[in-house]
Amino acid sequence: MKKTLTDQELQNFRPKCLRPDGANVGRSIAVTATGFVLPCCWLDRPDGSENLLEDEKIKPFFDKELHINNNKTIEDIVNSDTWQNFMGDLINRPEMSSPICLKMCSSEGNIHRRQEKW
Ligand code: SF4
Questions:
Q1: Which of 9, 58, 69, 118 is the most core-located residue (most Cβ within 10 A)?
Q2: Residue 105 contacts residue 15 (beta carbons within 8 Å)
């Protein structure tokens, strides 16, 4: 069940993989050791810490039809409905995004957020 996000949480959510025009360029796409392409390496949890295959937003990226062996180019994968729906939801329905995205790309909760003090 999806958590209901507050207005502040939605405001804090800034997907680092998106430019203002929605292109997937801010963070590099990642290829897992098993040959699947993901919007960024934060979605890959080889240690099983995030139960990836129980995350309905991430699970479709591991469909065998999207495996690199079953596509001619990375663009073929990135242009798939799975990718387009995922990226579109980051923009248009952020409340439906993966808990990993909400954790890693929210200014309050991003444990990798770089902070500089002057
Ligand atoms: S964690 Fe999600 S929202 Fe953040 S950069 Fe990666 S794919 Fe994009």
A1: 58
A2: yes
Q: What is the pLDDT of residues 18-49, one digit of tens each?
A: 866 656 666 789 999 999 999 999 898 766 66
| Long-range contacts at 25-34 (CB < 8 A, ≥ 24 apart) | 29/74, 29/78, 31/68
- Report how far ligand 1's centroid is from the alpha carbon of 15 (Å): 5
Q: What DSSP character marks residue 18?
A: B
Closest ligand 1 atom to Cα of 100? 1
Position in ligand 1 atom list of the atom nearest CA 40: 6
Residue 97 buriedness (CB in 10 A; 0-12 / 13-18 / 19+): buried
